[in-house]
Amino acid sequence: MANIRDIKNRIESVRSTRQITKAMKMVAASKLRKAQENIVKARPYADSINEMLQTLKLKNRETEHPLLAEGHPEGKRALVVVTADRGLSGAFNFTINRATADYLEQHPKTDVICLGRKGAEFIKKHHGTPIKSFVGLFNEMDFSISKDVASYLLELFLNEGYVSIDVIYNEFKSAIQQDVRAKQLLPIIPVKSEHISTLEFIYEPDAETIIEELGTKYINVEIWRIMLESSASEQGARMTAMDSATDNAEELIGTLTLHYNRARQAAITTEIIEISSGADAINN
Amino acid sequence: MPEIKIVIIQPHQIKLERTCDQVVVPGVDGDFGILPGHTAFITKIRPGVLKVFDETEMTNYAIHDGFVTVESDVVKIVCDVIEEEAEIDVDRAQDAKLRAEKRLQGEKSDVDFRRAEFALKRAITRLEIKQ
After folding, report:
1. Higher confidence at residue A165 or residue A2?
2. Residue among A143, A145, A154, A201 with most chain B CBs within 10 A, to mutate
3. Which residues from chain B sit within 8 angstroms of residue A199, using beta carbons?
4. What is the pLDDT of residue A199?
5. How sure is the predictor about A188, in pLDDT bands with cuts at 50, 70 and 90?
6. Do A210 and B43 lie within an 8 Å CB cutoff?
7. Domain range for B56
8. Residues A21/A90, Cβ–Cβ less than 8 Å
9. Which conformational region is residue B82 in: left (phi greater than 0), alpha (psi within -120 to 50 degrees), or beta?
10. Does B67 sit within 8 Å of A52, measured CB to CB?
């Protein structure tokens, strides 16, 4: 019977899909662990830069460096959208794209910079070509890559007349929870820190040069942190998605096996009936 | 004997955290030594050799950029790239030096020029330590 063979083929294909989703889950889990380690390792560096910048800002209220400017002047804005390069990661890319669409509705004249292929594709389709997209960043996570992105953004901010640059990305909470965050990247708003030094520092060459350099470093590390957070979230989302895909495949295999057995039994019964009615016909 | 604490922080690790007697840092405006009781101080680092002194020995590091803060006998160095003597590959540094020199002669764009110049400085620092 053709039906039996159909079901058997179906079971085979679901089985191989399950194997793939299972493997993807394992890969995501190991990448997630690595990303989490990187987040923890990056913390002391980010904290020190932040503390220094915070201290400098408090001590030098009168120097108004553009990197640390306060307030929200009207003018050209840019938005950095951080997504993944690949799909199959549940709602990971979708939630970012939705948040981006909301943002662009509020500020329609924003120029967009994309990190990650998925976001770039979305923007191109719905908003027009992004002014710059970086793709394939997340395969080889390296600090020098985030430096390239950061120097591009700083160039944009300091020389192209943008008044603010915002960023939308996924923040890593746990393997099953990622939160979409939108925040201002430039001008810099240093995070509140408890270790602000009260000592009077001597600066060499001078406070302004130091602020500029520290600001650059701060953006470097901020981009690096955002990339790490996003990549950890991506792997977490993929792991959860692939886990439930594997569960679904297992359930489907169960149901299909039941159907298969039923069809097989029906076929046997039919054959027996055929034989016994044939024998009856001869006897009579 | 009074000691100072030195902490070297990189984006992906804490490279070093220990006590020592004296540190010599290549600052933008010149090398300077830090002994216990140094005043609070912030400066930028230029590519050069960072020296950490103990009672009997001295350790050299090739450092390329970053910041140093001195505060109540804690020297904190925040940098992207730093290498201990043993980590330096002389052949690679030599290659990099030649490459950078060649590029400096032919380069016209400002950004690439600066980049090549920086690469050259890095290579020279590495070689300096090995000699």
Report:
1. A165
2. A201
3. 40, 71-72
4. 67
5. confident
6. yes
7. 4-85
8. no
9. beta
10. yes
Of B10, B40, B44, the CB nearest to A202: B40
Average pLDDT estimate for B53-76: 86
Please answer whether residues B88 and B115 qualify as being in contact, where contact means their C-beta atoms are separated by less than 8 angstroms: no
Q: Give the full edge-to-edge strand order of the sheet including A111-115.
A: A132-134, A111-115, A76-82, A162-174, A177-186
Residue type, B62: A
CB burial readout A163-183, b (16+ within 10 A) else e: bbbbbbbbbbeebeebebeee
If pLDDT is split at 50, 70 and 90, which confidence band does B94 have? Answer: confident
Nearest CA-CA distance, residue B56 and chain A, Å = 30
**How do residues A12-56 score in pLDDT, each as one tens digit?**
999 999 999 999 999 999 999 998 888 888 888 888 888 888 877
Does residue A16 or residue B92 have the better pLDDT?
A16
Tell me the torsion sign for CA atoms B124, B128, B129, B131. Answer: positive
> Which chain B residue shows the shortest CA-CA distance from A225?
B11
Tell me the shortest Cα–Cα distance from A123 to chain B, in angstroms. 30
Q: Could you tell me which of A193, A185, A221 has the C-alpha nearest to residue A45?
A: A221
* B73 and B47 assigned to the same domain: yes
Tell me, yes or no, whether A71 lies in a domain. yes
Number of structural domains, chain B? 2
Q: Is B42 in the same domain as B98?
A: no
Helix (H) or strand (E) holding A243: helix A207-283
Pair (B28, B74) in one structural domain: yes
> B99 and B62 share a domain?
no
CA-wise closest residue to A185 among A86, A115, A276: A115
Q: Is B57 helix (H, G, I), strand (E, B) or coil?
A: coil
Q: What is the CATH number of the domain that holds A53?
A: 3.40.1380.10
Q: Which residue range forms the structural domain that includes residue A61?
A: 28-241
pLDDT at A257: 94
